[in-house]
Amino acid sequence: MTSIATGELISKVEVNDDAVAVVKRSCKDLGVTVKTDLEAAEHFSGEDEDSFKENNGGVKPSDVVPDSSTRKMTKQCLPQLKKIHTTGDWWSLWIGLASFILAIALVFTVQYDHGSSRIKYVIPQPKRWETNPFEAWDLYGVIGTVLLLAFLCSLYLVSQNAMGKLESKPVCKYIKGFFSLGGIATLAFGIGRNKYCYLSGFGYAIFSIIFGMLITNSPLASGDRLSSLKIVAKDGEFFIKCSLALLATPFGILGEVGVGSLVVAWVGSPIALVLGFVFANQVLKMDTGLALLIATGATWCGASAISAIGSVIDAPGRDISLSISVVAFFTIFFTFAQPYLALGVGMNERIAGAWIGGSVDQTGNVIASAAIISEEATEVAAIVKIVLNSGLGILATAVAFIWQLRGPKDETKAFSWMFLWDKFPKFVLGYLLCSTVLSVLLPFIEGTAEADALQRAIITMNTWWFALGFVGVGMGTNIKELWHGARKSGIIQGYLVTNIIDIAISFGLSYAMF
């Protein structure tokens, strides 16, 4: 049995009694007895180094003291372990995983059959409606939405408590504020489900932001009014991060679609994104973050892509609002311009569908646009858009690495893998884990009603967090500053040029592959 003293270790590494106990237990398993300074002094009674070596099989005291690199790693790892339950970055991961688990649980507990409309609405939400808004709700939807918001609120409160934010303000303020925010998000979600709004490109995202901006820029929010709502609205970007793990897509989807769809979506869009970003940043001299947001929104998935990338690069809420607003506005024009142009020149229906799927933003707009041409064009456009959407998590992961590696010069000098890990968005871990679960689970339930409902449920859960986040982002936006930013930043020119590049590349690849 070998005995060592912890004196030198403890003098150089700040550890508490619990850490010492852990070290003792670990070393005991290896046949080494670890003693504190006092225990060692009483045991060795002044033995010199030679005596220590003789009594301990030739082991010197210095042999059992960690080197500088080990001590440095210990100092770096202990704070990282603490962050797992005390930082918003980690809590966005835990909340995303909890929401994912709830979605799976509801899919396998709620009663429904093949062909049942409930398959689309396992997660409570407003239904599609045309003229009567009450058609959007049934008893399951009303009660379920209240319970769902209560569950999401509980996750939010647990995270805020762990981060120490509930110590300065009463819990009741957070509860009141969250349900107020949830009510606004539900209203926006419901209006966005209107058939005509949906087909025109006015989905829940734009209504959530508009309602948020109207509230915060009106006399209703002056002074101390709506203080509870304002407290929770500040976490709008945190809610968006919570949703990102729910972008999960089964890896097997890549084998189910044609090569043509993959090329149009995953070759054309990245090229257009890079070219658009370079133009906006280098030619228009736009801020790097804003240029990346508008290039991503124009070439990938509109509001969803802007929100995901905005969270990765910690973009200001006003930049996210501005980018989403510009993309949503111009997308309406391209939704109708592209299909009528395709019809006017007699473009092949499959080529037209792939072209629209790869270049029109927002899934709803893609379907509405391709439907003007034909059913076949709609089918092809939907497949290309699904492939493009499934790559959003991969895009966010790539941007996360590149963004941290290109950081400020002073940070680059001090670069380390621990630094990169600290800055790395943890939602990516959730995205990969959830995608893995779907990839394993879906083959076992293929052909069942649960298989049809599962991915819809996860998308809906993602939508709820997005809706909450967009309301918060809208409330953090000053309309005067937004208008000034749109005129002065060059974002409109950046979007139009990037979108034209995307349209041209998508057409060329669609013509070549279809």
TrEMBL record:
Keywords: Cell membrane, Membrane, Transmembrane, Transmembrane helix
Keyword Lipoprotein: no
Main location: membrane
Regions that span the bilayer: 90-112, 139-159, 198-217, 263-283, 290-310, 322-343, 380-403, 424-445, 457-479, 491-513
Alphabetical list of InterPro entries matching this protein: UPF0324_pro (IPR018383)
Intracellular or extracellular location(s): Cell membrane
KW Transmembrane (keyword) present: yes
Region (Disordered): 45-69
Protein name per Swiss-Prot or TrEMBL: Sulfate exporter family transporter
Provenance organism: Ditylum brightwellii
